[in-house]
Amino acid sequence: MPTSTWTRLSPVRRERVLVAAMDEFGTHGYSTGSLNVIAREAGVAKGSLFQYFEGKLDLFAYVAEQTSLRVHAAMRPWLDGYDGSTEFSRYLTDALEAWLDYFASHPLERGVTAATNMELDPAVRNAVRAPVQDTYLAGLRPLVQRAVDTGDLRKGADVDALVSLLLILLPHFALAAHTPGLEGPVRLAGDHPEVRRANMARLIGPVLADFVPKDR
Amino acid sequence: MPTSTWTRLSPVRRERVLVAAMDEFGTHGYSTGSLNVIAREAGVAKGSLFQYFEGKLDLFAYVAEQTSLRVHAAMRPWLDGYDGSTEFSRYLTDALEAWLDYFASHPLERGVTAATNMELDPAVRNAVRAPVQDTYLAGLRPLVQRAVDTGDLRKGADVDALVSLLLILLPHFALAAHTPGLEGPVRLAGDHPEVRRANMARLIGPVLADFVPKDR
DNA sequence: CGGTCATGTGACCGGGTGGTCACAGTCGTC
DNA sequence: GACGACTGTGACCACCCGGTCACATGACCG
């Protein structure tokens, strides 16, 4: 949790520190990320960082939280916008495409998301990843539940199972498109957006197939 | 690649170093793992490590490779044993359960697998993860292909898509059962093996459903 | 025995780390 | 102008890192 000093800071200074921290942690991860570098890139003395945050972990947790809020805000229209007028699998594919587009155009957020997902140290992950995952859960579950309620997904479909699968696949999709070596034979880093969309449909389609009503 | 000195070493000394390195890298990951600790735990001078390997990355790459060989060897019966006499989805569920069992009883291998999968630095991942992933690919693809050939999976099924999905889900299953915060609502860390198996079936079942023939 | 060579060792090196703190500056208020 | 509270600063601390290297050890051979 940032200190009160941080909240009183001028917005431009806050943004400079936040961006520098997102960049550094997003590029090198938590343990390898350097406060010296963050302070230098932000144009701020290192001592100042310790007046704004309790320490490195506190800063990282703040960065992770802010990032997840930004991502969540960007995806909110898709999380809230489903009304059953479009076939759900089509809607979800569109939403996933927007998801990929967002990370393609927001490398800072992509980096921090990667660093958060890849963190190994349980202490760090507990401070950072579990809350973020809860945010995703709170966004996805109602969306899936609504699709079941409207009959766009099969009555009695295992909502928890689908949500769990999405929770595994979503971060993977977001990162695979930009980190080589994460992909299987079906690549998401395709040069053409159409290829990427088609390949994503190849992956998400089969997963959804068992959840849609038989007569569709 | 280890030096020739390493290959001439007594097996007990090699094993001591290997185990210490698996433990350290598996617990703390590559960048945070310490050669000082490895040398101490192995009962070996730090200088000796540099007579066995070119440096830290070389040691880590060796550890990752050896680990993937061990895992691969343990799973080989399942990769080779499919002959179409059992329904494929049943066979795969059994194989995945063996997969979970293996990591439950081999914490060193589990730790290194986690560290390999969670590595952020592209240079390290290229040196380590891509080869490992190729090993998985070489094991999984023939298995799936055989299931298509025997008609246990639908003719014309998208083999690449299923393999890609498995490549994403498998490491996740292996690690989720032991690293809190990685799981969605459907948990694999259940106390009872039956619960765990049932939950895994809830996740893998829908994924497979679209690949099995319609008349089954 | 002396000589050679492979191997083992740990003090040591330069460098980077997260974190601290004594000091300097900068406001608003009386 | 004088005060006090808040904020900014970077030299500094103790510590740990990966990597090196001069030397010790010991096995084998003539």
Write a short abstract of this structure.
Two copies of one chain form a homodimer. Chain A has 216 residues and is an all-alpha fold.
Would you mind describing this structure in some detail?
The structure is a homodimer of 216-residue chains. The first copy, chain A, is an all-alpha fold. The first copy, chain A, has ten helices and no strands. The first copy, chain A, has helices spanning 4-8, 11-32, 35-42, 46-52, 56-80, 88-105, 107-118, 122-149, 159-176, 193-209. In chain A, helix 2 packs parallel to helix 7 and helix 5 runs antiparallel to helix 6. The longest helix of chain A has 28 residues, at 122-149. The first copy, chain A, is elongated, with a radius of gyration of 19 Å. The mean pLDDT of chain A is 93. Chains A and B meet through helix 2, helix 7, helix 8, helix 9 and helix 10 of A and helix 2, helix 7, helix 8, helix 9 and helix 10 of B. The first copy, chain A, binds a DNA duplex (30 and 30 nucleotides) through residues 5, 8-9, 34-36, 44-48, 50-51, 55-56.
Write the layout of secondary structure elements.
2 copies of one chain form a homodimer.
Chain A (H helix, E strand, L loop, with lengths): L3 H5 L2 H22 L2 H8 L3 H7 L3 H25 L7 H18 L1 H12 L3 H28 L9 H18 L16 H17 L7
Helix pairs in contact in A: 2-3, 2-5, 2-7, 5-6, 5-7, 5-8, 6-9, 6-10, 8-9
Chain A binds a DNA duplex (30 and 30 nucleotides) through helix 4.
